[in-house]
């Protein structure tokens, strides 16, 4: 008897689930900044599979309801990971949404999956403002590239098939981060109830072999969006012989991604993923990358602070005045990047399929809104007591500066609003990560 997925893969291949996949990319940031891998992994698992009777990750929308108001019936399951590198710099995990109710024991048979999703964590948002930009731009790792063949040579090949050729080149920094994630091993249980240890590719291959035709989503934000491109390409190679792979039912969704590779890689990627999606804020430095580095200094100065804008320091209205200049450190870094890339004749190119160029309206937020973001970032999650001295004078000053604008245009709140405004996108709540109770380290 041929296995049939609960819903046709085509339900998940367009823009309808743009906010759902962003919600999964956001979940990869749970306990971001924590110093213990066990705490991070256990808290992510808890968010999808809570034991306190609460619900944290909401069910996806039911795509068969044209109103978008009905949740899909079923439950989340973490099928592999999270896998976290020893230095905590890279994180990836595999989840599914399944029919039925959660089994009383993880050893009991699981419900049929509607989809699987590989979720990749992005830039370390717990760092300071300028370091954010440095992480993104320095990901080009001395501005060098390596072939996709070379990138795939040092990673597991559970499908035991020849490395594909003709995939062009990716940045050396991107390849290094990918290699670390692809080589992480985690314990997992196959659909047949066999306990195994293996990498993300082995787990995905086992699940898609057991559940043929179920779609696979790959999602990430920021550097996670960059890694989404090479990880999806890797998994497409590994599951090519499955019905998911052969029917192009792999749907990468990259949010705010930096550019991963050259023009040949971009064309190869487009051929693999006709339904891939790129979600780009045109005022976000990170995904626009080489498209706006030359005009970066005045990117936000071409727009005005919106009505109701108050300078938090002086309490004066600045509505109608030009927005902030980009931080000097970022401008200097970008100039060096342009010079080196031009010298080395590296043709970094974004794939063409499914690119959504979104511009905020109004283009700039009020400084009061930016200040609220800064204060929230400085406020530790419960059970730590909230600080009583916020906002500080420095935070009030930062609210009208380019460093904070860089964060605002790049982070989740802006992207949730932009993606939610795209035609046909079904509403899905982006969870406040601080509402998820931190779990103890299972190794202690």
Radius of gyration: 22 Å
Strand order of the largest sheet: 1-2-3-8-9-11-13
Reported CATH architecture: 3-Layer(aba) Sandwich
Would you tell me which CATH topology applies? Answer: Rossmann fold
List keywords for this structure.
444 residues; 33% helix; 13 strands; Rossmann fold
Description:
This protein is α/β, with parallel strands linked by helices and 444 residues long. It has a single domain (9-435), classed as Alpha/Beta hydrolase fold, catalytic domain (Rossmann fold, 3-Layer(aba) Sandwich), CATH 3.40.50.1820. Helix content is 33%, strand content 15%. It is built from 15 helices and 13 strands. The protein has helices spanning 18-27, 37-48, 129-138, 148-153, 172-182, 200-210, 223-238, 243-246, 263-272, 285-288, 328-344, 367-378, 393-398, 402-410, 412-420, and strands at residues 75-84, 91-98, 113-120, 145-147, 169-171, 186-189, 195-198, 216-221, 250-255, 261-262, 277-281, 348-349, 355-358. Strands 1-2-3-8-9-11-13 form a seven-stranded mixed β-sheet, sandwiched between helices. Strands 4-5 form a two-stranded antiparallel sheet. Helix 1 (18-27) runs antiparallel to helix 15, helix 3 packs parallel to helix 11 (328-344) and helix 5 packs across helix 7 (223-238). It is globular, with a radius of gyration of 22 Å.
């Amino acid at each position: 008897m041929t296995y049939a997925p609960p819903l046709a893969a085509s339900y998940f291949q367009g823009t309808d689930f743009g906010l759902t996949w962003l919600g999964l990319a956001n979940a990869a940031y749970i306990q971001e900044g924590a110093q213990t891998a066990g705490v991070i992994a256990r808290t992510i698992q808890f968010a999808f599979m809570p034991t306190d009777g609460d619900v944290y990750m909401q069910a996806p929308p039911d795509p068969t309801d044209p109103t978008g108001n009905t949740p899909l019936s079923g439950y989340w399951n973490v099928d592999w990971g999270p896998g976290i590198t020893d230095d905590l710099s890279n994180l990836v995990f595999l989840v599914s949404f399944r029919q039925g109710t959660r089994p009383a024991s993880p050893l009991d048979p699981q419900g049929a999956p509607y989809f699987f999703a590989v979720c990749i964590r992005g830039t370390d948002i717990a760092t300071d403002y300028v370091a954010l930009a440095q992480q993104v731009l320095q990901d080009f790792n001395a501005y060098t590239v390596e072939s996709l063949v070379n990138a795939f040579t040092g990673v597991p090949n559970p499908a035991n098939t020849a490395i594909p050729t003709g995939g062009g080149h990716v940045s050396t920094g991107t390849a290094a981060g990918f290699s670390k994630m692809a080589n992480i091993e985690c314990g997992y249980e196959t659909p047949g109830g066999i306990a195994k240890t293996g990498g993300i590719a082995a787990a995905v291959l086992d699940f898609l072999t057991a559940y043929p035709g179920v779609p696979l989503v790959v999602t990430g934000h920021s550097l996670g969006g960059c890694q989404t491109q090479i990880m999806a390409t890797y998994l497409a190679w590994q599951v090519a012989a499955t019905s998911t792979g052969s029917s192009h039912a792999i749907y990468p969704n990259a949010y705010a991604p930096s550019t991963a590779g050259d023009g040949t890689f971009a064309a190869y990627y487009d051929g693999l993923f006709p339904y891939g999606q790129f979600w780009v804020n045109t005022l976000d430095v990170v995904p626009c990358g080489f498209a706006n580095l030359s005009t970066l200094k005045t990117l936000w100065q071409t727009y005005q602070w919106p009505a109701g804008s108050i300078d938090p320091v002086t309490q004066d209205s600045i509505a109608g005045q030009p927005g902030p200049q980009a931080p000097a450190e970022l401008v200097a870094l970008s100039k060096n990047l342009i010079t080196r890339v031009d010298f080395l004749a590296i043709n970094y190119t974004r794939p063409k399929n499914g690119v959504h160029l979104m511009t905020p309206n109004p283009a700039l937020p009020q400084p009061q809104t930016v200040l609220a973001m800064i204060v929230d970032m400085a406020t530790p999650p419960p059970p730590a007591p909230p600080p009583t001295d916020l906002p500080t004078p420095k935070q009030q000053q930062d609210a009208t500066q380019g460093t904070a604008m860089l964060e605002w245009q790049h982070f989740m709140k802006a992207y949730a609003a932009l993606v939610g405004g795209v035609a046909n996108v079904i509403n899905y709540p982006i969870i406040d990560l601080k509402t998820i109770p931190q779990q103890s380290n299972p190794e202690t």
